[in-house]
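Students often ask why we bother encoding 3D structure as a string. The short answer is that it lets us treat folding as translation between two languages. Here is a chain of 324 residues written in the first language.
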Amino acid sequence: MAFRKLALLTLALALHSAARAGEVLLDIPARPGATVRVLEMTGERAAGHVVLYLAGGSGQRGLQGAWPGSLPSDPDTLFGAQRQLADQVGAMVAVDTASDHEVLDMDDRQGVAHRRDVAAVVDFMRKRHPQARMVLMGSSNGAFSAAHIANRLPAVDAVVLINGSADAWAEVPHLKRPVLGVHHRRDACLPFRDSYPKARFYPLIAVDSEAFPPVYAGTRRDCSRESAHGLQGQRSQVYRAIGNWLLTGEARHPNCASAPLSQAARRSTSRRKGSGSHWRRLAPMAASRRCQNTPAAMMAMPIAVRATGNSRLSRKTVYDKWPR
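And here it is in the second language, the structure alphabet:
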């Protein structure tokens, strides 16, 4: 009974402040004796999307002891880039670990408790923003959590995997909903070459920067926040591109204008199975390997927008299930 009263009180307080733009810290009841602290960041307009972010590593977001406005605001910090995404799509929710299980390992990420915790947050946000699409986004090990949980949680409308492992992408073929991949080519923690064989069948934003060395078989592993794995120096650009995909269905650099197709590319496109209105929408993004006047820091690869799908789900089906 006490648990139910706490849940109702938390929901009432949250709904009271739902219309206000800004930041709010919420402790969401997840299981008896356990709550999940989240930081909700909202834009000034009604949320069309609520993006729930699951962190990698230990899963912690450092929200214990924090208060609204106390966290970094620079757009290239993680919190700053996520605030930018909230302004773009409506709402962004940083999800911390549960109060009774503060550190997550890979076994925990596959466990029932973690799934129930995330499901409680999704359900809470669905009531708070009833008209919004629920998007589960994870980075690194959090990408595995996002894909694994989305496979078992129908309430999730879309999934975004940032620098995810091959194991995370192995969960994706079973997801009958939109999926976006984001991966740094010079990721020395979870290398791009490992995820690409599976990620290439889905919209994919490939990030690159000469600020980091190329990754080879013997490259020293680097999973730090200041590495390519942490999207250091490129977070603002990447999150803007994610927001564009959520709003338009196009996986491309936000500053990259669509260029006309060459005759060769047009002929190639017309020969592909399923060519039609869907391909006419996607084809301009595959016109060239690099858009003119686009920073080399980040580029959407042609493979990111191919309409080829795996045996279970075609790319056309994915986009058609995302209402405009």
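Translate back mentally: The two ends are 42 Å apart (CA to CA). Keep this in mind for the problem set.
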